[in-house]
Design brief:
2 copies of one chain form a homodimer. By secondary structure, the first copy, chain A, is α/β, with parallel strands linked by helices. Chain A has 15 helices and 7 strands. At the A-B interface, helix 3, helix 6, helix 7, helix 8 and helix 11 of A face helix 3, helix 6, helix 7, helix 8 and helix 11 of B.
Chain lengths: 351, 351
């Protein structure tokens, strides 16, 4: 029962109090839980074990696209539109170029600060580096926390140029891929891979020249991607786990919408499209996206526990020595893995 | 001894012949081995086990930076300069915007094709998606193959906006971070994180207005990063493994160089800087970067084997059922991980 990190027992009372406070609407408590999740402290396990059964109701929307496509401005516009409907909205930004994580344009920061007193808007940036597979499991766990805390819509903003980041967005219930008109050849090259994971494609900066033409090009590309047959990276997200959610046929060609996030044009239409996608049977618990998220979380915990075992005092030195032998090319990594598995006393069913 | 994928035995003879051919200079055989490594087929294990002991001599250089900084043009220029010295150079491009992976500018493609008949230049793109931690372990394994095949310098090109991609470049012996002058606010925001992993910073497109100013700004930022104290993400790469290579003090402030890759200006200076960094004691087998690479590989193999175990006929259905329970929020992921660990019959030393 203990966490794979440190003894969780000591922080258990804290966790109970914090979870109760977070569920009662205490945003500071919510923030502390998310910090624990991000840092994988023992508190995180205790809190998540209590919160997880309460989650599973929110609509998780991934928003990804290349830098400069205006993701964070679109997120701001979506927040405003969702708040007008009276719904609570949470944002998890896994994006090094996001103003939320400390980056860019003053205008966006001001827009975000407009919600600093609105208890039904919760914005959180995630660094989540330094852990293979950590981005997916950390952001998924953070989404479960916001979900349990009653946020109805959760936006997962990631930059669409990294493998892990695309997988995070692709594991959402609905994946929105953003593009801007005429982003230049180099950025265009990213599109094909991104389009594979899209449920909805948005051409932002729709007031720029070429926006309509970009939308037409994207529709043509989507037909080509659709013919190629699969929503590849959606399944790829599940690869971290035990293999459910493999490549599946695209149920429906993604819509291509135009928005101008800076003026709000097209945002109501985007919200409508999100709601339709949610309603189209994507709320079932066994969708590939939900299985992929479950697997990402379970696998990350499993890996954490095995790592902790390899660090246990009894074999810590042996593990380090094995790694040094591999680094010196005196031992191949397969033989090293076999040795570590033996040290972990995992019975190998194949032998 | 069997692979964590399928029975490796059947393809063993193929592997021996292929490895012998690759070591004798057969580039098609080399390409087939790299394909196996990329796709994690049983052939990969057999080949890597033979090739790994022969590797460990090459200088592995990570080249990363935001889209538009001119990474692939710089790589082309480096190839030309290295070939003039008579050294063999391998390139592994993990970059969705790279012309090598099918993206962008015709000019660059033509430049790459110039080496299609040069047996001492080997260029390979890596998709490597769909596997948590896969990017690091796959590119590291591919580098070991090229290393064993006698390539003296191996360039690992990644786009510096994704977590996994930055970690791949950061786990090289020498990490070069590329910037272009005045890339705009949004892209500037990426810099701080990238600079943490840099051994050498290159301002490319040095003939553009503002290049000198960008270099000055970067030097100022590097002093600030240096004061903050650590080469964070270098250690982060090691996080995938058993924890060596944690945050370490930066041994020396990174140099900031100007290049104009399109004309070749500054390229000899960059090569000189690479060689100095290599000579500065970074060839030892127990550097944090080499330990991080070893750990990434070992951990990926360990994870593959455990995944295969969870997929074994005896417990495949139980695993899938557990994942469905988590997806339905009927079981928390910690309890699920504990259940799977029991199914794997891993004795938990903490209990």
């Amino acid at each position: 029962m203990a966490a794979g990190v440190k003894a969780a027992g000591a922080s258990q009372p804290d966790a109970t109090a914090l979870v109760d406070a977070a569920l009662a609407g205490d945003r500071l408590a919510l923030a502390r839980i998310l910090t624990a999740v991000e840092n994988r402290t023992p508190l995180a396990e205790a809190a998540l074990r209590r919160l997880f059964p309460l989650a599973g109701r929110a609509h998780l929307v991934g928003i990804t696209g290349p830098p400069g496509s205006g993701k964070s401005t679109l997120v701001s516009a979506l927040i405003a539109a969702v708040r007008e409907q009276g719904r609570a909205v949470g944002v998890i930004a896994v994006d090094p170029s996001s103003p939320i994580t400390g980056g860019a344009l003053l205008g966006d920061r001001v827009r975000m600060q407009a919600y600093s007193t609105d208890r039904d808007v919760f914005i959180r940036s995630m660094a989540a580096r330094g852990h293979a597979g950590g981005l997916a499991s950390t952001s998924t766990a953070a989404a479960a926390v916001l979900d349990a805390a009653g946020f109805d819509l959760i936006l997962l903003e990631t930059v669409g140029t990294g493998q892990s980041e695309v997988e995070v967005a692709a594991a959402a219930d609905t994946t929105v891929v953003l593009e801007a008109p005429e982003m230049g050849d180099e950025v265009q090259a990213i599109k094909a891979g991104l389009l594979e994971v899209a449920d909805i494609v948005v051409v932002n900066k729709g007031d720029r020249p070429g926006a309509q033409r970009t939308a037409s090009q994207l529709r043509a590309m989507l037909v080509a991607v659709g013919r190629a047959g699969a929503k590849g990276a959606k399944g790829a997200g599940a690869g971290a786990g035990a293999g459910a959610g493999a490549v599946r046929p695209r149920p429906k060609e993604p819509e291509v919408l135009l928005t101008t996030a800076t003026t709000g044009a097209g945002i109501p239409e985007l919200l409508g499209s999100l709601d339709r996608h949610r309603a189209r049977g994507h709320e079932a618990s066994d969708t590939p996206a939900r299985l992929a998220r479950a697997e990402a979380q379970v696998w990350a915990i499993l890996a954490d526990r095995l790592r902790a075992d390899l660090h246990a005092p009894a074999i810590r030195e042996a593990t380090a020595a094995t790694m040094r032998e591999v680094a010196a090319h005196e031992l191949d990594p397969f033989a090293a893995a076999d040795r570590l598995l033996t040290e972990l006393r995992v019975p190998d069913p194949r032998r």
